[in-house]
Every structure is written in C-alpha cells, then in structure tokens.
Amino acid sequence: MLIEAPERFEQYGSVRIYDVSKVLELDSLASRNPTGTYKLDYSELEDIGSRTAIVVPVKNEELFTLEGVLAGIPHLSPIILVSASSRLPIDRYKHEMALSKNFYYRTDRPIVTVHQRDPFWGEYLSGTQLEELLDDSGVVRKGKGEGMILGVMIAKYLGYEYVGFIDSDNYVPGSVHEYAWTYYAGFAMAESKGSMIRIQWPYKAKLQESEVYLRRRGRVSRVTNSVMNHVLTMIRRIETDIIKTANSGEHALSMDLATEMRWAGEFAVEPFEYIYLLEKCWIEKDENGCPMIKEGVKIIQLESRNPHIHASRDDEHLIEMLALSLGTIYHSKLVNDSLKKYVIETLRNYGYTGKEPPKPRVYPPIKSVDIDKIVSHVLSESLDARIYGLNP
Fold this sequence. Notes:
39% helix, single chain, alpha/beta
C-alpha cells in the first residue's frame, strides 16, 4: 500500500491532528517509494494486522450485507461482532450467530459474537464504574457507542494492541478490505501508543430506488465537520478546516488510547472522541483526564479509494444523528454562549425543533473496570456469546 506521507498538522495541546492524506495505490509491491509517500510492505501490514481486532457493530442489518462485511475484513484480524439486533418477534440475532458460525467453519476465521443486551453483561457490569451503561431494566443500552465499548473490552481481554471499527451497513466488501489495510498503515505511520486513525471516504453513496448518487461528503458529517472547524477557528482566531472526519464510523485506536479515554453513547460516539481529547488535552490541560499527555495523541486522517455505499436513511434519522453529533459540541467546554447560539442556529437550518441538542451520555474510561473478569464471565457463561478460533 502506498500512501501520501502525513505532513501538515495542527497542534492542540498534546493532540496532533493531521490533515487528510490519500491512499495512492492499494497495491504498491513494485513501487520504489517516491518522495513524499509512505510505502508499507506486506510484512509490516501483516504484523500490525495480526495485532488488530476489528469490531463490527450491527443492528438489524440484512444478512447478505453483513456477510459481505465479514468477508471483506482481512483474515489477519479477528472479528468481534457486537449486535443490538432485535430478538422479537423475529430473533434476528439467532440468524447472525448462525451466520458467524458458518463463516468460521468455512473460512477458519476467528470470530466472537455477542449481543449487547445480553443479561450477563448487565450482571457483571452492575456495581462497577461502567454501570452507567445499563438502562432501567438492567441491560446495556441499545446505542452504537455502548456496543463499541463492549467491543473494545473484548479486544482488550483477547490481548490485542489495536482495535478498529467497521460499520455493518457497507455494501462493498472491497471497501471494508481497504479500510482494514488503511488502519494497519495508519498505525505503522503513527508509531505512537496514543494513536487514532480516521477514514474519510472519497464518496459516500446511497442507494435510492434504481439510482446510485455519489456524494462527496455525508449530509451529517459535512455539517459536523464545519461546526467543529468553526469552533476551533473562533477559539484560536485562526481559520482552520483541519477536521474532516468528525462522524467517521470507520476509525481505529491503539488499545492504550481506547481504554484510557472516555466514550459517549449512541451516535454521539465518533464526534465525541474529538471533543473529549480537545477539551481534556487542550482547553483544560487535564493531566488526569488527558490520555497520553506526555507522549501526545496523534490523529491521522486518511482518504480511501473505495466509496462507502450503504442503504438510504430517512430525514428523521439524519436529524437525530446531527442533533446527537452537535450536542457533543454544544455541551462541551469548548464553546461559549455565542458559539452555542451558532450550534442551535445550524440545527434549526436542518429542521431540528428541540430547545437544545441532547447532552451526550458519557461513560468512565474502560480501564476503570476489571475487563478480564467481566468479559471472561460473559463469554464462558452466556449461551448468546460465541467465540470461535480463539483461545482467551
């Protein structure tokens, strides 16, 4: 793989955000590593890939789509499927478990499958610092962010150094494959215990009746990127457009960073990662809250070659996602009253009618609990947890 070498960056306290670098070649075996590029040999990618777990959050996805996602992930990395799919009136998770089992037996591919609403998670998270993950019925909330937290816990328990996320709604297995290779390349370039790799798609396409429309940026991410950059501009009084991956579902973290930082629930999870690091490591300079404060956190943004093609979402869903995304900014310590007004006005322009955006539900760092104890109990005791091809 040949990638533009990340060069231009902006520093915010101990957080370094690199501008977007593009994937130049998916296969660079014969390349001589031209100036200004970063070439990764297969042996390097293989080494990092074997130390990376890929988490796939899924909720009521078509099985043929999910199967394509699983098939696209390189064999180097184990798959951790965390499902929030419905159990009634049709037990969709039962079919996902069957798919995972068949996938393992046909490919000899290590895979873990869990349901985030499994009562065993509730039993062993109860009374811990992460008890806030549970709703009033005592099971983990349905949100995407909550499922990602469980995925990180499993990856940590299994001993992986890196964890990447790939959404289950991707119709193109080749895109999935490239995302994983891009994670490996990003970690190789970062050379940091505090690293995060975030992918920008060249196009995000949605299937609309019989047509495919290639959009340069997603409707939600375009707005969230703009608002984040406006906030940074107003704080520093220097115009910036550095953030281009605010809502990147396809992103990966070093395990040290993933377990030390705090996480948000639902669809606030991806933009909150930026907000949390900027707030703790730049605005507050909080030695206790900022992970890797001495070494620093490197955020590398990389643009893939494959587009992200997924099913069309209705406007109501998009407004909900936008409100949750901008809510991470509105309720942060980055903004004053004037910037809060700007966030509200932006939401109004897109049809949001609430008084203010929802405040994100924020959870303590994952390292605050006994990960090994919790995950080992769930995987060994629950009939809804399956682990194939791995020895914990």
